[in-house]
Design a protein that fits this description.
single chain; Alpha-Beta Plaits; 5-stranded antiparallel sheet; SH3 type barrels; 45% helix; alpha+beta
Length: 295
């Protein structure tokens, strides 16, 4: 029975041994490089980028060296390898598409680690990018506000080919936040509007030169970043919508500050009151305008 076992040729044995030694050396270099980066760099984001770059470089070097080590004799297997590669391309379509998505992420950079994005209905901060998938620290999944939920979402890289991506950090790290405040029709809404505008201006962010840099990078017209209040009506009363520019990761904090100032201000007025859904009986003959009453 022992005679039936295949005998490993010295050439194959040397190649296997050389491959194992090469992989061990590359892993040792990776370990030492990672320790050196963590010892010399304090910023966690910069550490991540250096370690990730070293890993990619060592993987590429490993493929080249191991491929060269095993390249002799490959010419005789050209036809076989051609058929094998075609079969693998069909069987591994999804992984190959994920790799293509990774290359697009490196080339076009629709988003980077640290950006806040939304893709396929999932919003979060990009915390990792790998060969087959990228990872988000989820926001809004369990809460209504744009704050982290603590869950990590892993998304295949192939998703970027057929799904729109919303990037809240690319070139302009601000968002417009709108807060509708509804006051009764009988309220002095003009006074309330002027006061709300002052409150919004006090808490809104100032984009400054970022507006110009965004217009240089993208074909975007003039950007109006000034805080404002817009008037409309609904069934309950006059709607005064406060619009203000807020940091991407500070919208909830700014919204809270604006709302608290609005609540304090309205509490001091006798001629402004909040409106809310109510049922009211309106007698047009008695309450309507003199020239607009029903006969």
């Amino acid at each position: 029975m022992l005679d039936d076992l295949p005998v490993i040729s010295p050439e194959l044995r040397d190649r296997l041994l050389s491959t194992i030694v090469l992989i061990a050396v590359l892993l040792g270099i990776r370990f030492l490089a990672s320790r050196a980066v963590r010892a010399r760099v304090n910023d966690a984001t910069v550490q991540y980028r250096w370690v990730r770059g070293v890993n990619y470089a060592l993987v590429a070097i490993g493929f080249l060296l191991i491929g060269r080590l095993w390249s002799s004799g490959i010419g005789q297997l050209g036809t076989f390898l051609g058929l094998l590669s075609a079969g693998l391309a069909l069987a591994l379509r999804e992984p190959i598409t994920n790799i293509a998505g990774f290359l697009l992420l490196l080339w076009r950079r629709p988003f980077r680690v640290g950006d806040r994005i939304e893709i396929n209905g999932i919003a979060g901060d990009v915390v990792d990018q790998r060969l087959f998938q990228f990872s988000l620290l989820e926001i809004r999944g369990r809460f209504s506000a744009d704050q982290p939920t603590g869950r990590i979402v892993h998304i295949p890289n192939a998703t970027i080919f057929n799904t729109p991506q919303f990037n809240s950090s690319d070139g302009f790290p601000y968002l417009w936040t709108e807060l509708p405040v509804v006051v009764t029709f009988e309220s002095n809404w003009e006074k309330a509007k002027a006061s709300f505008k002052e409150i919004a201006t006090r808490h809104a962010s100032q984009a400054g030169d970022l507006k110009q840099s965004m217009r240089v990078r993208y074909a975007i017209g003039p950007i109006d970043s000034e805080a404002g209040v817009f008037t409309s009506v609904n069934d309950d009363g006059v709607v005064l919508t406060i619009r203000a520019l807020t940091p991407v990761r500070g919208a909830r904090r700014v919204s809270q500050a604006i709302w608290e100032d609005v609540l304090r201000q309205v509490a001091q007025w006798d001629d402004v009151d909040f409106a809310y859904p109510t049922t009211r009986i309106y007698n047009n003959r008695r309450e309507g305008k003199a020239d607009a009453r029903a006969p």
